[in-house]
Design a protein that fits this description.
The protein has helices at about 5-10, 35-40, 60-65, 80-90, 110, 140-145, 150-160, 175-185, 240-245, and strands spanning about 10-15, 20-25, 50-55, 70-75, 100, 115-120, 160-175, 190-200, 205-215, 220-225, 225-230. By secondary structure, it is of the alpha/beta class.
């Protein structure tokens, strides 16, 4: 994709600050945020892992974890975003490690074999329909609100594709924690790790990273120290700087 073509279609190329990788994004669609970067750094990855990213968007999570796993499959419903994700894979010469599917992960039986992945990651829409203001840009609205997939849809798909004792990692808003625990239990998951994310040390947590295991034993939840995003002066914390390689 040429620079003139990028400009014509409101596309840009951003630096991922990892292994020299770049990511194409469009201002007319949902651009990846820090949420995706934090999620990419949360799982305990293994070289043998086959990973599935549910609702990959621009494909940023696969780009960030590809070096540390066997392969990553990424599925995206939005056709424009799926094409951007494919272009990002090609741009970074990762076609042998990352495979992008355009499709609806609610139709998981159509796209995947049962219990065929070791790890599933998801940065799903945070808000139930009717909760909060809806963005006028359709791609942004569907990324933030559950128009195309509910919390139960995400967990149902993850359970179908994960092996027994497979791992599911997700980032979500703290206010839905109780609901998330209920949905996980309904699908044979047990939470194993929980890390709250605070905008600043002086602010209450607003996001959380969680890890759940298929068939995991109850009563073994590890609550990790909070992740502080900003110092009180607004600058990034040391940990965020480390994550971003700054």
């Amino acid at each position: 994709m040429s620079d003139s073509k990028l400009e014509e279609n409101s596309f840009r190329i951003d630096d991922l600050m990892k292994s020299g990788r770049k990511v194409i994004q469009s201002s007319n669609e949902f651009c990846f945020s820090m949420d995706s970067v934090l999620l990419a750094h949360f799982p305990k990855l293994k070289r043998k892992f086959k990973v599935l990213d549910l609702g990959t968007g621009t494909g940023v999570i696969p780009l960030l974890i590809a070096d540390e796993v066997a392969q990553v499959t990424a599925i995206e419903l939005n056709s424009t975003m799926a094409e951007i994700a494919r272009r990002n894979v090609e741009l970074n010469n990762l076609s042998d490690k990352i495979f992008v599917i355009e499709g609806d992960y609610k139709n998981f039986r159509k796209h995947f074999k049962a219990e065929s992945f070791d790890l599933v990651v998801a940065n799903p829409p945070y808000r139930a329909i009717g909760s909060g203001a809806v963005n006028e840009i359709e791609g942004v609205a569907t990324a933030r609100h559950e128009f195309t997939a509910t919390l139960d849809d995400v967990v149902t798909a993850a359970r179908f594709v994960l092996k027994y004792h497979g791992i599911f990692c997700m980032i979500h808003i703290c206010e839905r924690l109780c609901e998330i625990v209920d949905v996980l239990h309904n699908h044979q998951f047990e939470m194993k790790r929980l890390r709250l994310i605070q905008p600043k040390f002086s602010k209450l947590p607003n996001l959380m990273l969680l890890e759940a295991m298929v068939g995991g034993a109850a009563g073994s939840l590890k609550i990790e120290k909070p992740l502080i995003v900003h110092n009180e002066d607004g600058s990034y914390s040391d940990e965020i700087n480390l994550i971003y390689g700054l």
